[in-house]
Amino acid sequence: MTKVYVPRDMAALAVGAKRVLAAVEKEAAARGETIQIIRNGSRGLLWLEPLVEVETPEGRIGYGNVKPSDVPSLFDAGFLKGGAHPLSIGKVEEHPYWAKQTRVTFERVGIIDPVNLDDYVAHGGGQGLAKAFEIGPAKVIEEVTKSGLRGRGGAGFPAGIKWKTVADAPADRRYVVTNADEGDSGTFADRMVMEGDPFVLIEGMTICGYAIGASKGFIYLRAEYPQCAEVLTEALEAARKGGWLGPNVRGSGFAFDIELRIGAGAYVCGEETSLLESLEGHRGIVRAKPPLPAHVGFMGRPTVVNNVLTLATAPAILAKGGEYYASFGVGRSRGTMPLQIAGNVKFGGLYETPFGLTLGEIVNDIGGGTLTGRPVRAVQCGGPLGAYVPPSLFDTPFDYEAFQKHDSLIGHGGLVVFDDTVDMLQMARFGMEFCAIESCGKCTPCRIGSTRGVETIDKIVEGVDVEANIELLSDLCNTMKFGSLCALGGFAPYPVESALRHYPEDFRKATLPAAAE
Amino acid sequence: MSGAVPWNEARAQEIIDAHLGLEGPALPILHAIQEEFGYVPEAVVPQMAQSLNISRAEMHGVVTFYHDFRHAPAGRHVLKLCRAESCQSMGSEKIAKDFLERIKLEWGGTANDGSLTVEAVYCLGLCAHSPGALYDGEPIGRVDAEILDELASEAQKS
Ligand SMILES: Cc1cc2nc3c(=O)[nH]c(=O)nc-3n(C[C@H](O)[C@H](O)[C@H](O)COP(=O)(O)O)c2cc1C
Ligand code: SF4
Ligand code: FES
Fold first, then answer.
1. 0.90 exceeded by pTM
2. Which residue in A1, A306, B125, B154 could disulfide with A310, CB within 3.0 to 4.6 Å?
3. Which residues are near ligand 3 (CB < 6 Å)?
């Protein structure tokens, strides 16, 4: 039976995958063709979604940007045998956007049936966990440390050290919590893993639980991802049925289970202590550190809070060895990074590659420049708390330290491209406004400072005492940076200051002679 | 949207009780309450406070902290439009502003005929297809004026 792949990834659904699926089913029935439809995740070539693939003896042939109305002509062209058609992109694995990637965390995403355990195992799933059981908890932590894997949620803290801290903390119970709050604009890698290969996260959490001596894990998923919740629920069910979760994981004697929790629309709940408060059922107010969650976390117990990508990378590290993973990357940025290329860009998608490509290569060579065809003016890296980077800095290599050097962040690996029509004063205003909307309210610099920041920018927009207000804004940024308890207030100045630094002309428009009017 | 049912204290208690075995059950209960009744009625606050053994003030604090919990029923359909940076880079602000003007609504408002509520969200993970939206939970990419007008008239008819 011919296998036809129609993604159930949220982004594919957003551009019509469901209607394409219905059209394919209907057309196949009308023509008496028996096909097996697999609802895979996305390959990450998001500009080609819906990307329908057909399995042929030569490999999987892809058809991109399929609309329901294209389906009859696809059948006419013999697409079930990989026939030629204007929408054909040939063998998906030979497509340059795919072929040039180094996929470790995403090795199965888009390829397998996300909720089929047999398919997972057939594509190498489970080897990491088997290895973990073989070498024991202490050696697992050693491998993860050796891999150089740093937290992919933003701060880049070494995963191995966090795991060891929790393992060493005396306690009657410990927890693993997956931070699946993915609130940054321009990011979707967590979602894609969870929708395209949920078992890899389940396996990663189980490895972590085993290493630190936890029997319970939580996935804290943002409410904005309903399709993702569906896939995770199915996968957790299948994992329990298949003996991958429960009192005796894979016959090892190790007991572990995972509960899915849904957030309720608060960006700050991505901050790990606020997340724990929310998980416990409180307002998502940030806790002062210390104590670290590694010592006093969920319900006062030592807790690993890791990002989805961090945990989903653990199985590959165990299966292939810490050194293998560490062999990729530059400097202290080891391994691969799932880049999320978004915004006004021609080839938006997910691109996993070792650290070290320059920003220009990512935006222009991989992303293909802007979708509107106009010049790139700014790229916001690292979400709403990240800096705006101008093309003059495009030779910066993508690694944690190189970005830090000019006051910007990699964060979760999201890159949002803007063309030359962007108004950087408005973007700076939005940065402050976002902080004001999402502030948890615990500390004054963030709660009040962001509101004052919006007011001050509004005065600059109106052309009132521009230079004095720019100075006031800089002052405010400084206070927020050094007086805020968490990175929401502490990093909100980054987009604002970078806009001021790189695009000063946008802040002084109102004072220029109104020549354009 | 889901066929929300009218407020019923006994039913609410059933929902609360069903979740009491969880570690930190407050958010799961609130989600289930909103799923059932379409919003989180004020009356559920003291009820939950009692069951969870916390003060009413604390319970009230939890309900009001989160953007997603409604204090009044929404329209029959809910459209969430993304206002975050990636969508802005593709002109979402103007598209949304024009649309809201056409249907005479403000952010968070519900149409007079109760057909549609329009809310702001900040990133849906659809940023490679910005602007993004969710209509009754269904994702939509590359949102434009035409798509929005179609949704609004579809909402009126059902
Ligand atoms: C305001 C704010 C929002 C955050 N949002 C997220 C998020 O959505 N996902 C995430 O993994 N980390 C987020 N973080 C970082 C977490 O606090 C934490 O560092 C991370 O989950 C640790 O996991 P990692 O070590 O695997 O990166 C956020 C931090 C702040 C200050
Ligand atoms: S910086 Fe803002 S979000 Fe962070 S703790 Fe302070 S008030 Fe809360
Ligand atoms: S910024 Fe709008 S979907 Fe991500």
1. yes
2. A306
3. A 185; B 82, 84-87, 123-127, 130, 132
